[in-house]
Amino acid sequence: MIQLTRLDGSSLTLNSDLIETIEERPNTIITLTSEKRFIVQESAQDVVERIIAFRQTCARPRLVLMPEDEQAENDGESSPLEFPQPGRMPGSGEGI
Predict the structure, then answer these.
(1) Residue 84's beta-bridge partner residues?
(2) Which of 51, 39, 36 is nearest to 12 (CA)?
(3) Rounded to whole angstroms, how far apart are CA atoms 5 and 28?
(4) Residue 12 above 60 pLDDT?
(5) Per the domain annotation, does 93 fall within a domain?
(6) Is the bond preceding 26 in cis, omega lying within 30 degrees of 0?
(7) Domain contains 92
(8) Does the reported pTM lie above 0.85?
(9) DSSP assignment of 9-54
């Protein structure tokens, strides 16, 4: 999800996976796969940069610190990195 600003100054959050095209004429027009359109204040380049930044945060592994007692139980066998799994909250052992 990326945060953008409509022409009237109100905030807009878009699912970047649904963006089909981004055009500048001179306003920036974003067309979704559903053919719905949004006109935003940000430039096309800024929108692309926000999409890239968002996707980088999704792909980055999370560092999970374990309490000392859990570290002793694992005897150093576990990695300090935990990769998110679909349908599971990292570090909680519970589903979403």
Answers:
(1) none
(2) 39
(3) 11
(4) yes
(5) no
(6) yes
(7) no
(8) no
(9) S-EEEE-GGGEEEEEESSSEEEEETTS-EEEESS-HHHHHHHHHHH
Q: How many domains does the chain have?
A: 1
By residue range, what is the domain housing residue 40?
2-59
Query: Does 14 reside within a domain?
Result: yes
Task: Give the C-alpha separation, 15 to 70, whole Å.
Answer: 37
Of 20-24, 52-56, 79-83, 92-96, minimum mean pLDDT range: 92-96
For residue 90, tell me if it sits in a domain.
no
Distance from C-alpha of 25 to C-alpha of 5, rounded to nearest angstrom: 17
pLDDT per residue as tens digits for the range 23-63:
999 999 999 999 999 999 999 999 999 999 999 888 777 67
